[in-house]
Predict the 3D structure of the following.
Amino acid sequence: MGLILITGGARSGKSSYAVQLAAESRRRVVYVATAEPLDAEMTKRIDQHRAERPPSWHTIEEPLHPCRAAREAAAPDSFVILDCLTLWVSNLLTDFDSKHEPAAAPARSAALEDLQCLRDLPTDAAVAVVTNEVGLGIVPDNALARAYRDLLGEVNQELALRADEVQLMVSGIALRLK
Amino acid sequence: MGLILITGGARSGKSSYAVQLAAESRRRVVYVATAEPLDAEMTKRIDQHRAERPPSWHTIEEPLHPCRAAREAAAPDSFVILDCLTLWVSNLLTDFDSKHEPAAAPARSAALEDLQCLRDLPTDAAVAVVTNEVGLGIVPDNALARAYRDLLGEVNQELALRADEVQLMVSGIALRLK
Amino acid sequence: MGLILITGGARSGKSSYAVQLAAESRRRVVYVATAEPLDAEMTKRIDQHRAERPPSWHTIEEPLHPCRAAREAAAPDSFVILDCLTLWVSNLLTDFDSKHEPAAAPARSAALEDLQCLRDLPTDAAVAVVTNEVGLGIVPDNALARAYRDLLGEVNQELALRADEVQLMVSGIALRLK
């Protein structure tokens, strides 16, 4: 199965599609979550996603190094869901933003370093990575938002290049791009 | 022909494509409009869309229950255009927002209830529903805007699941997703 | 090769794809740039794009009439990249915004007039035009931003209609729409 990238807009069915692939694989599922329940809205969204998953699935919370965690969980009998790159890149920028000025360069280095972990996966591994397309609206006013969409765009391109399969979700329908 | 969902970004040719399908069907056309001319800009946009339509087409203005109106207009000799879900969901949120706090839950209930009307359409019906993809930009700052894109995303998924045909418009070109 | 339209979100690999097509053509490359280095961020982005291009390529800076410049550079032995419509439409609106109230109508006239230059290209010409999809997010609060996405959407539709080939870039992958 290899590396599968699932991209698309907000509420386009990306996570549900990853969950469906995992269930169909009949493998042991490991869920690598990058979301942190920092406020009520995020807590609610995390709970909604969790309710879609069977309780037997193992969840690893890894806001800063999810690719390494996914690599470690990849095995011939496992199906790993990494959900999602979008929040991971946001976590990195927020993490460096509190320490550096500007955050874009160190966040980019950290992102590209962690991404290396998903190169050269064994062919019998199954890793589905969920991300978002965030660059199809008007240019944001906010400089950090622009840095964010630039970095996420670069991360998505890098993963799509490595992936064995890329799916674009639109209104719950998967369109295979690769 | 059944149920056709036409989605895409702003100014991607969605309404024009619906109008073209209606004209080609050579059926009697019923246009269910959800837009309300609340300001000058909206009035202008409504007038532009109206100018694209032959005067013989029957227009029904139904800002809150467009699916019911479309269901009632569906017949073996009619082609119904419902344009669009985007403004309908906005109308519902605005309507409840003035009465409730928060608006998301009651608007969602109202949306899902009206959507039921488009289940189990007769196979000889022809209903084209226009909607928008609004979730491919940066996460909006505004909580109501986030509730809006979540609800519209869910509505789009629900309709795409029921639809016999789903078209994604990009720069005026229709890409068939289903 | 004719007229090729390359569209997609920010950081989806549009310019790189145009550069790749140009390199593969083994023709003499003319790069028509619409970007103006008005601030540090834009200067950096322009420099990044320039670094991807071989120094032998000829660059023409044409912020207001890029289609005319592309038409003049089109020849049986040249490959013209026009990068990009997005900044061109922004330049037009900004240019008229400082003189007129509102800017949308004169900017639209100027855009449609310059676009005429890309009609009826000789079949042995090769012109790749880069643009952006900006209408797949939440409706912008700002009236000028709404006018911008309306006008760019119309320009994209007009070019896609004339184009011999239309590619949608998603995460660095080209999806052929036409």
In short: Chain A has a mean pLDDT of 93.
